[in-house]
TrEMBL record:
Belongs to the PhoU family. One of its GO terms (cellular component) is cytoplasm. It is found in: Cytoplasm. InterPro entries: PhoU, PhoU-like_sf, PhoU_dom. This is Phosphate-specific transport system accessory protein PhoU. Gene3D superfamilies: Phosphate transport system protein phou homolog 2, domain 2. It comes from Lucifera butyrica. Homodimer.
Length: 218
C-alpha cells in the first residue's frame, strides 16, 4: 500500500467520522425538541447522556486532524480538508450543546401544562435539521450550490424565531403566570436559531473547502 493511498484512507476515515458526528447532532436536536413537545423526560435524558458521545467524537476528530497535520504536513487542498474538518466539528459540537440545553428545559417543564401547543418550535427544529442534513450532503458531494442554499435558508429560521419570540412575549404580557415557561421557550427558540447559525457556518466552510475562498454571510 502506497503512502498516498494510506493518507487518502486516513482522510476518508476523517470524513466518515465527521458525517457520523453530524448524524448524532441531527438526531439530538430532533429528540430534544420531541422531548419538549411530548414532555418526555426519558427522551430528554437520552439526549443529555448522548452529549458525552458527541463531545468525545469531537475530541477524537481534533486529535486525528492534528496528527494528520503533524505527520503529513499537508499543503493546498489537503490542508483545507483537514482545517475544514476542525471548523465543522466545532460548529457541530455547539449544535450538540444546544440540543443538551433544550433537553434540560424539557425536563424542567415536563410537569407543567404547556401554555400553548408547540407547533412553531418543532417547525423551527425541522427547518434547522433540514439545513444540517443539506450541509452534510453538500459536504459529501462538495456541492457549492447546496451549501449556498443552506446559507439562504437561515433567513427563514430567523423570521420564524422573531415571530415566535413576539408571540411568547404577548403571552407573558397578557398572563404573568406564563412568564416562567414562556421564558424557557424563548431560550429554546434562541437555541434553535443558533443551531441554524452554526449550520450556516458549516455550509460556508464547505464553500471554502471547494473554492478556497471565505464567504461570510453575516
Amino acid at each position: 500500500m502506497t503512502t498516498r493511498h494510506t493518507y487518502d484512507q486516513e482522510l476518508e476515515n476523517l470524513r466518515q467520522d465527521i458525517l457520523r458526528m453530524g448524524s448524532l447532532v441531527q438526531m439530538a436536536i430532533h429528540d430534544a425538541v420531541q422531548s419538549l413537545a411530548k414532555q418526555d423526560v426519558e427522551l430528554a435524558q437520552k439526549v443529555i447522556d448522548g452529549d458525552d458521545v458527541i463531545d468525545k467524537l469531537e475530541i477524537d476528530i481534533e486529535d486525528t486532524c492534528m496528527l494528520l497535520i503533524a505527520k503529513q504536513q499537508p499543503l493546498a487542498r489537503d490542508l483545507r480538508i483537514i482545517a475544514t474538518g476542525l471548523k465543522i466539528t466545532t460548529d457541530m459540537e455547539r449544535v450538540g450543546d444546544h440540543a443538551f440545553d433544550i433537553a434540560k428545559i424539557a425536563q424542567k417543564t415536563a410537569k407543567q401544562p404547556l401554555i400553548k401547543p408547540l407547533i412553531d418550535i418543532p417547525r423551527m427544529a425541522a427547518m434547522a435539521q433540514k439545513m444540517l442534513q443539506d450541509s452534510l450532503e453538500a459536504y459529501v458531494n462538495l456541492d457549492i450550490a447546496l451549501a449556498e442554499q443552506v446559507c439562504r435558508a437561515d433567513d427563514a429560521v430567523d423570521d420564524l424565531y422573531n415571530q415566535v419570540f413576539r408571540e411568547l412575549l404577548t403571552y407573558m404580557m397578557e398572563d404573568p403566570h406564563t412568564i416562567t415557561q414562556a421564558t424557557q421557550l424563548m431560550f429554546v427558540t434562541r437555541y434553535l436559531e443558533r443551531v441554524a447559525d452554526h449550520t450556516t457556518n458549516i455550509a460556508e466552510w464547505i464553500i471554502y473547502l471547494v473554492t478556497g475562498q471565505r464567504l461570510r454571510k453575516k
